[in-house]
Design the sequence.
């Protein structure tokens, strides 16, 4: 009976130790508030040494705006889908100091943003359509 209790205790201890090795990642909104938590098992974290970041998706009225990859090494893609194709879409890239670096008219499709000439830092990407706008914090590495 005592051996059985020792084996169960040992099993629980091993299971707890394995669970404690999981990696936790957090997602934040534009204001810096934590909005979600993901637990990534250690075995998955080791096997995926260079994971591709998930695209950032925002609803902008009837439109959907997808920005990826973030963080980026230079090439950034902005996809705008939905809404009235006649509406003008503007994409404005700001430095952290608020200086406008790029001001581009976008199409309802994928618009590339070349950030390779800018230093490693964080930037603000603003997407404007009609009277609606949304902003993304972009990290260039």
Sequence:
């Amino acid at each position: 009976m005592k051996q059985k209790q020792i084996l169960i205790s040992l099993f629980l201890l091993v299971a707890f130790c394995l669970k404690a090795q999981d990696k936790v990642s957090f997602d934040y909104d534009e204001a810096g508030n934590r909005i979600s938590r993901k637990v990534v098992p250690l075995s998955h974290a080791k096997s995926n040494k260079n994971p591709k970041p998930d695209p950032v998706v925002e609803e902008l009225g009837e439109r959907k705006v997808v920005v990826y990859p973030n963080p980026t090494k230079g090439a950034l893609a902005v996809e705008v889908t939905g809404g009235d194709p006649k509406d003008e879409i503007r994409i404005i890239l700001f430095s952290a100091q608020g200086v406008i670096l790029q001001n581009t008219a976008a199409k309802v499709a994928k618009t590339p943003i070349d950030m390779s000439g800018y230093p490693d830092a964080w930037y603000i990407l603003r997407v404007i359509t009609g009277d609606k706008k949304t902003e993304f914090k972009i990290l260039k590495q």
In short: The domain at 56-140 is CATH 2.60.40.10 (Immunoglobulin-like). The radius of gyration is 22 Å.
